[in-house]
Amino acid sequence: MSVAIIILILTLTSLIPIYANIHGAGKICDELGRRSLSTRPHSVSISEFGAVGDGKTLNTIAFQNAVFYLMSFADKGGAQLYVPPGKWLTGSFSLTSHLTLFIENGAVIVASQDPAHWEGVDPLPSYGRGIDLPGKRYKSLINGNMLHDVVVTGDNGTIDGQGLVWWDRLTSHSLKHSRPHLIEFISSENIIVSNLTFLNAPSYTIHSIYSSHVHIHKILAHSSPESPYTIGIVPDSSYNVCIQNSTINVGYDAIALKSGWDEYGIAYSRPTVNVHIRNVYLRGAYGSSISFGSEMSGGISNIVVDNGHIHNSLSGIAFRTTKGRGSYMKEIDISNIDMSRIGTAIVANGSFGSHPDDKYDANALPLVSHIRLNNISGVNIGVAGKLFGIQESPFSSLVLSNVSLSMNSGSTDSWQCDYVYGSSESVIPEPCPELRRDEDAYSRASV
Ligand SMILES: *[C@@H]1O[C@H](CO)[C@@H](O)[C@H](O)[C@H]1NC(C)=O
Ligand SMILES: *[C@@H]1O[C@H](CO)[C@@H](O)[C@H](O)[C@H]1NC(C)=O
Ligand SMILES: *[C@@H]1O[C@H](CO)[C@@H](O)[C@H](O)[C@H]1NC(C)=O
Ligand SMILES: *[C@@H]1O[C@H](CO)[C@@H](O)[C@H](O)[C@H]1NC(C)=O
Ligand SMILES: *[C@@H]1O[C@H](CO)[C@@H](O)[C@H](O)[C@H]1NC(C)=O
Ligand SMILES: *[C@@H]1O[C@H](CO)[C@@H](O)[C@H](O)[C@H]1NC(C)=O
Which of the ligands is closest to the CA of residue 322? Predict the structure, then answer.
């Protein structure tokens, strides 16, 4: 294929309307998958920049210098930074556009545990503060700001965040700033992250914020079930995102879709839209395998999740929000999911989570509607559903069909519902009356 055609295809892909309908979301993975991996005409190895892969030498300067050097190839087809087998200790470093970071089989990029090797940066505008504590946050280990055409891949190379010290600092309240993520892209587009193993992220494994055309596939993200508030992949105020063929086992949420926090997210107003998730194996031990919110103040819509295996999690699928968030979560289709060993299969919680500060508007009510769950099966489930909306803004048009959950022995109260409305078909065990209402009657009543 000629360069001109490839450029044409990339151009067309970026013209997909931002607010395409939900059926568009179910095509995102195929669309992003059609873009071929650009082979970079130039490649350098990190060892050419003085890096030493002994697991002890700090290589931050080498990574920074290598990326700086490769900037000059951006208009020459881009370049590859090759990381050969070895253990490459480093603090945080930034990527550049038209760059492929290739982590070879047997290569491990190891994150320094010394906070001095991590820069403190201003909070994200849609959050107004760090997630763990007010004020700054540490820059992520590998980060990109306002980039395009970046590939982070390898032959199953590893990025190890050595998160244990950060988890301890969180629980002992000795963090100076909010914990860093492993990879973060801010305001970037045409990003691929693939073929890698991520271990022990201090906080999130992959954070995509204010970004678009992000394709994450064939990754393994792992941290211990006890790691506090570790999250796998977070599409945040981003559009046209695909996550597929991946395994994520973390302490809190495996995949969490977000879009900003209370008054900061409302003011910034950047939704998460057109996200396609398929063929995923997830464990969110003390959180949820798939979660929406609770930070959702820019809006979340047009999300398709198809074909997932969810196991050993406190909840399976969770929709979280609270008064003060404003905005909406709607047009979400989740189908063909099997679950095992889950505390509560489906959760909706309208009084979840805290506020960034006391300046939020308690009258900013979120709207949650048009959520469809189809072909869901589960074994060893504690509670089928805990669905609690908001009195002043009940969750509506929640549609369950072909849901079959086999409960733990001893569980009796299968569905608990309040301030939610919707319909159901072929749901076992029999759902609460709120999910057996005629929706039109509800909308007439609420006019
Ligand atoms: C991904 O990894 C597999 C081996 O696990 C390898 O065969 C394939 O070429 C890799 N793809 C890329 C883009 O590196
Ligand atoms: C990739 O590496 C991880 C850890 O080294 C291993 O558990 C996993 O099985 C590997 N995946 C593939 C596809 O080789
Ligand atoms: C995802 O997995 C499916 C089924 O194994 C395979 O056909 C497809 O090529 C994979 N796609 C990517 C982008 O990894
Ligand atoms: C909703 O979440 C809050 C905060 O985690 C929790 O205290 C509350 O019990 C949850 N509500 C329900 C009904 O589970
Ligand atoms: C219901 O969902 C299961 C998977 O959970 C699937 O095997 C079955 O074919 C579905 N039934 C119908 C009628 O779609
Ligand atoms: C539900 O499962 C059936 C049988 O496998 C399949 O035909 C149907 O397309 C599935 N529904 C959705 C929404 O994926």
Answer: 4
Report the domain count for the chain. Answer: 2
If you average pLDDT over residues 4-30, what whole number do you get? Answer: 58
Assess if residue 242 is contained within a domain.
no
Q: Which of 110, 220, 222 to mutate to test the pocket of ligand 2 (most atoms within 8 A of CB)?
A: 220
Q: Is the CB of 401 under 6 A from ligand 6?
A: no
What is the domain-level CATH number for residue 290?
A: 2.160.20.10
pLDDT at 414 over 70: yes
The Å distance, Cα 375 to ligand 5 centre, comes to 5
Does 304 sit in the ligand 6 pocket, CB within 6 Å? no
Coil, helix or strand for 320? strand
Say which ligand is closest to the CA of 386.
Answer: 4
| Atom number of ligand 5 nearest to Cα 375 | 2
Give this prediction's pTM.
0.93
Residues 425 and 287 in one domain: yes
- Cβ atoms within 10 Å of 66's Cβ, excluding its own: 26
- Pick the closest to residue 29 from 300, 210, 217 (CA basis): 217
Looking at 224, 241, 263, the residue that finishes a domain is 224
| Strand segments (E) across 293-409 | 300-320, 328-349, 367-388, 395-407
Residues 6+ apart with CB under 8 A from 390: 321, 322, 323, 350, 351, 365, 366, 419
Q: 194 and 313, same structural domain? A: no
Residue from 40, 155, 216 whose mutation best tests the ligand 1 pocket (most atoms within 8 A of CB): 155
Q: What is the pLDDT of residue 437?
A: 67
Q: What is the pLDDT of residue 412?
A: 72
Report helix, strand or coil for 140.
coil
319-378 residue pLDDT tens:
999 999 999 999 999 999 999 999 999 999 999 989 999 999 999 999 999 999 999 999
Which residue's CA is the nearest one to ligand 4's atom 11? 349
Pocket test for ligand 4, best of 252, 322, 349, 418 (most atoms within 8 A of CB): 349
CA torsion, ordered 339, 342, 347, 351, to nearest 10 deg: -150
Between 9 and 228, residue with greater pLDDT: 228
Q: Has residue 72 been placed in a domain?
A: yes
Q: Which domain holds residue 300?
A: 1-36+253-447
- CB 277, CB 247: distance < 8 Å: no
